[in-house]
Amino acid sequence: MIALALSAGTAALVSAEFLPAGVLPGMARDLGVTEGRAGLTLAATALAGAVTAPTIASVLPRADRRTVLLVLLLLAVISNIVVAISPSFGIVLVSRLLLGVAISGFWSFALSVGVQVTGRPALVSTTVAVGTSMATVIGVPVSSVLGDIIGWRAVFGAAAVLTLMAGAVLWRLLPPVPAQQGAGLAMMRAVLGNRRLVAGVVVIFVAAFANFVAYPYIRVAIEAIDASMVAVLLLGWGLGGLAGNLAAGYLSRWLRWAATAGPAILAIALAALAGTQGSALLAIAVVMWGFGFSMVPVTTQLWVSAIEPRRVESAVGLQVTAFQIAIMSGSVVEGSWSISRDRLQRCSWAPSPQCSPRSASPPCGSSRGFREHRLSAEC
């Protein structure tokens, strides 16, 4: 039950983190920014997370971990409420910083707290990761559908309610949990001195970056090939992720091979997605993408905790930092590229003989994959 309570908290937080990917068009339109710029809300969350993950155990070396987890969930509730009522994009970005603190802090402590209470690291890691996948199922496809029906602001309001409910479950089930012995700056320094661990964290970053440079725009990429499949394929991505979490937990007994399989499947899926124009291969690639990437957090979290069994908080903190930097870097790269592309096309746009003047489309072949620049039927 403790693992399920931690999973519920993780699910609520991750749902909120990736909500912009599901409501991106409406959010951008309402706030008066491009979809590329709106996608930077993911980068803001990751920026705060990248700072929080390696430092929170040092800042709170003796604090009861149950209390810390509950406060972090409260921060997420506040963040979602502010985003839901925010009148400007700037306020949204600041609010998302709070969410980044909550997510990274919660992730950094969840495994060590769960292990201290249950003594079963594989169970805790897999269950928490399943919460992440369920959040992806809810946070992206369901928010995409709900955003079109009730509006993106109401979706963030619902996320605040779900997070509050997760906090109530955690408050009811989780007993007081003391900080890990030796937590603080000395523990982090010792972990950073482990060269094998640091090299592994770099590899984790590379795999996560490959995912997150593409992830913020998964909806518009699907729409460019088959707009009717958006909700179904986003659900398929999440279900593939759920299967990947479960497979990673089962394969954790062969940890080295499992940790290698996730990035390999992810690479194949992204390559297939980049080259396809058919719906069938698109569907296979999207599900494989979710499956492969969702193996990564489970296997790498178990790997870093196996490398540093007496310094789990700091080791997992570095793993979370790698993920958050990857999210931030991917969102910034993709968002900056999209913004630059928009500017270039506004400067160079002109109707061409190959495109219909009636549709006022950019030249054929440009901007494939982004809804605001989709080609007309005449191209």
Summarize the structure.
This protein has 379 residues and is mainly α. The protein has helices at residues 2-17, 19-31, 35-38, 40-52, 56-59, 65-85, 89-118, 121-150, 152-173, 185-192, 195-212, 218-226, 230-250, 255-275, 279-307, 312-348. It has 16 helices and no strands.
Helices and strands in order:
Layout: H1 2-17, H2 19-31, H3 35-38, H4 40-52, H5 56-59, H6 65-85, H7 89-118, H8 121-150, H9 152-173, H10 185-192, H11 195-212, H12 218-226, H13 230-250, H14 255-275, H15 279-307, H16 312-348
Overview of the molecule:
With 379 residues, this protein is mostly helical. It has 16 helices and no strands. It starts with a helix and ends in a 31-residue tail after the last helix. 54% of the residues are buried. Residues 349-379 have low confidence and may be disordered.
- The number of strands is 0
- In round numbers, the mean pLDDT is 80
Give the H and E element order.
Answer: HHHHHHHHHHHHHHHH
Number of helices: 16
Strand-residue proportion? under 5%
Structural class of the secondary elements? Answer: mainly alpha
Low-confidence stretches: 349-379
Main sheet overview: none
Q: What gap, in angstroms, lies between the N and C termini? A: 56 Å
**Large-scale geometry:** globular
Q: What share of residues is helical?
A: over 70%
Radius of gyration in whole Å, from Cα?
A: 21 Å
Characteristic key phrases:
mainly alpha, 16 helices, about 80% helix, about 0% strand, globular
